[in-house]
Design goal:
Length: 400
């Protein structure tokens, strides 16, 4: 009888848990190591695009996620100064009325994936901060932790530690801008568009957004939204000092309706500041080690693809490991299957981010006066719908 292969998964985030479920079902001995007892609510909301939902459906988890989340059929943004429509992407441009994304709280996605991993009897060791994973003889690896303990040897280590992975030598370029994220209850009144991510911009220095996410993480069901406010990292302390009332007045000036949502925050601690980084590793495969999800590449959430990418990575990696007995060949095949899609979206995010979050004064003018109107023409509408729905270059092709 052959020995089941062993895999250590570093990080119980989106990529780590999805990999754990898939590899456990494929007969691997899976252990997940996570530094926290629970996932932290960094980035309160995210959109799962159709390819990410297709992976969740393949895992049998799509309906659980849809039940917790909220459908997103349109991305809509206006420039506050000129009142110009700058962004208006409808999923219906994909050619089917049913096409949509799913907005949900990061903790809801974690709950679904975590529950499914436990159903698969995956061992999840919490309170384990990974520091290093040195190679051993025979191509195997072990993990070293901050508390001085170690685990292994493992046939394979999957680095799913996210954008600041301890298993990478370079954290990448930290972007100047990040955002404050919190969760609010959407009013029953039809003030906000149904099933739409809505944003208002002032140049590229200010952005306020509302993303319907369905259930809140504390199990309160219903119409919640992620509320986000873009902010330069070096202005965070000043934001705290100025106090919530000054901020609410700023929100009101930018988007009067959103003031009703901002007024729900009574404590600055209810808003988490997330700073973004941009980084892509040229080759995420090493002997006995593979970097996936944000550990492979990280970017601003401007195009909202990170969780989808993490799910696609997990699915492609499990497929490559299933199709090839040789570990090195399987990792190389995984990289080939994912690289083009990854590089394309990294380039697009790098291109788009300064138009929406930067100190640049010219780019937002171009966005408002040229790119915005052009984007509303029918061919551009379809292209943008394909782009934001994560479907450029058919990411699922060859993965089944
Ligand atoms: C504010 C914000 C908004 C976003 N919006 C969107 C969106 O709309 N759509 C979208 O698709 N994506 C979005 N993303 C991106 C998305 O959340 C990430 O791309 C996705 O979570 C990446 O998954 P991952 O598994 O690679 O990393 P993560 O989900 O970050 O998981 C990493 C895990 O590793 C653990 N970990 C880290 N270091 C260690 C260590 N040393 N030892 C042990 N464990 C460790 C962490 O605690 C965490 O559980 C957003 C991100 C942010 C920050």
């Amino acid at each position: 009888m052959t020995r089941a292969r062993s895999v250590a998964i570093a990080g119980a985030g989106v990529a780590g848990l999805a990999s754990a479920i898939l590899l456990s079902r494929a007969g691997w001995r899976v252990t997940v190591f996570e530094r926290f007892e629970r996932a932290r609510p960094v980035g309160s909301g995210l959109i799962l695009q159709p390819p990410g939902m297709a992976v969740l459906d393949a895992l049998g988890l799509g309906d659980r996620v849809r039940e917790k989340g909220a459908p997103i059929r349109r991305l809509f943004g206006k420039s506050a100064g000129s009142d110009r429509v700058v962004l208006d992407v409808r999923y219906s441009a994909l050619g089917g009325e049913g096409a949509h994304g799913v907005g949900l709280h990061r903790a809801s996605l974690f709950d679904v994936l975590h529950g499914a991993a436990l159903e698969e009897q995956v061992v999840i060791e919490t309170g384990k901060a990974v520091l290093a994973c040195p190679p051993l003889s025979g191509g195997r690896r072990e993990l070293h932790f901050a508390d001085g303990a170690s685990a292994g040897p493992f046939d394979l280590v999957i680095d799913a530690l996210g954008s600041r992975s301890a298993l990478l030598s370079s954290p990448g370029r930290l972007l100047d801008y990040g955002a404050l994220w919190g969760t609010v209850l959407l009013p029953d009144r039809a003030d906000f568009q149904q099933a739409a991510l809505e944003q208002r911009y002032l140049g590229a220095r200010r952005m306020v957004g509302v993303l319907p996410i369905g259930d809140a993480p504390d199990a309160a069901r219903g119409r919640h939204a992620a509320f986000f406010w873009s902010l330069r990292h070096d202005r965070y302390d000043a934001w705290l000092q100025d106090g919530l009332d000054a901020w609410k007045a700023e929100v009101q000036a930018l988007w009067p309706l959103a003031r009703h949502l901002a007024s729900q925050f009574a404590d600055p601690a209810a808003l988490t500041f997330a700073r973004y980084a941009h980084r892509t590793i040229a080759n995420p495969a090493e002997a006995g080690l593979i970097h996936i999800g944000d550990a492979w590449r990280a970017t601003s959430p401007q195009l909202g693809q990170g969780a989808n990418m993490a799910l696609l990575d997990a699915y492609a990696l499990a497929g490559a490991l299933r199709d090839r007995a040789d570990l090195g060949e399987a990792l190389a095949a995984f990289v080939r299957r994912r690289r083009r899609h990854v590089l394309l979206y990294q380039a697009m995010s790098w291109l788009f981010t300064p138009f929406y979050q930067s100190d640049n004064r010219v780019l937002p003018l171009l966005r408002d006066r040229i790119a915005g109107p052009l984007a509303r023409l029918p061919p551009a509408q379809r292209f943008l719908a394909v782009l934001v729905s994560g479907q450029l270059r058919g990411p699922l092709r060859g993965l089944e």
